[in-house]
């Protein structure tokens, strides 16, 4: 089984990042610990990707029902990192008592 990464979205939810693609949570985790995710390009009117992914509580992909055919829209490997950094900056700015510039620089240097 393959590992994946959870990445924060700008709306406070999470994307699942796996094999250069983002997936959004389609259904809550079931009683067996399986979560179903859908390709984020499902609602793209030109692509309409119908790939579903199932993951378990151990951070592993259990199944993937097909292959993506929209490789020109692969996620750049830097994008998940940037989404994590943005989330960390937001969290630190919300709780920081230091000046914004200093908090921002400390976050980037970590």
Automatic annotation (TrEMBL):
This is FLYWCH-type domain-containing protein. Keywords: Metal-binding, Zinc, Zinc-finger. InterPro entries: Znf_FLYWCH (IPR007588). It comes from Brachionus calyciflorus. It holds the Pfam family FLYWCH. Residues 7-70 form the FLYWCH-type domain. It comes from the Eukaryota. GO terms for molecular function: zinc ion binding.
